[in-house]
Inverse folding.
């Protein structure tokens, strides 16, 4: 198996042998979070996001995940995470740690296929992305399991009845059109959560 990962803090330099081919940034857009009615919090789609949300790379490419804000992960949808399998067959479950502010995590995508990822702390807020490796990626959902949560499901699909998400996130579109920005998708959703009251 050719998968590899490497994680460091913002003070460390990347060794030449691990120089990334692509970069994905993990962000919080505070303008899309309304906390004026606490304990209720309203979050618009895109408040927590990967940039880009769709990326095409060649097999063997190293992707650097840069944590521009704290408390994020880059986690694969995989039965080992009790999720649908949305990575190539034979690729084990993988996830970054919850990394420090401006830390980074590297992952080498060796096997051709579609890799759907989510941020474990922010999947509820729509924080997901799709990386297409190679030019013949095959199917998106390769084994059953728990689908993405509803906000992320709008982006990546539920995998049920052939739903693979927003049309621009179709793997062939990512191959043909290049990186996809979440801002360009026009997804107009929000979720409101309320903290429980002490009883």
């Amino acid at each position: 198996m050719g998968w590899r990962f490497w994680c460091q803090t913002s003070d460390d330099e990347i060794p030449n042998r691990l120089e990334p081919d692509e970069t994905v940034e993990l962000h919080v857009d505070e303008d899309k979070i309304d906390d004026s009615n606490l304990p209720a919090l309203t979050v618009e789609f895109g408040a927590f996001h990967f940039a880009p949300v769709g990326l095409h790379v060649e097999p063997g490419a190293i992707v650097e995940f840069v944590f521009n804000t704290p408390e994020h992960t880059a986690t694969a949808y995989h039965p080992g995470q009790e999720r649908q399998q949305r990575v190539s067959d034979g690729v084990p479950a993988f996830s970054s740690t919850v990394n420090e502010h401006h830390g980074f995590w590297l992952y080498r995508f060796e096997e051709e296929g579609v890799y759907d990822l989510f941020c474990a702390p922010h999947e509820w807020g729509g924080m997901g992305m799709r990386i297409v490796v190679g030019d013949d990626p095959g199917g998106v959902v390769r084994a059953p399991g728990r689908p993405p949560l509803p906000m992320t499901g709008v982006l990546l699909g539920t995998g049920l009845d052939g739903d693979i998400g927003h049309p621009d996130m179709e793997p062939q579109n990512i191959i043909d059109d290049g990186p996809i920005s979440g801002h360009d998708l026009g997804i107009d959703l929000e979720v409101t959560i309320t903290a429980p009251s002490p009883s």
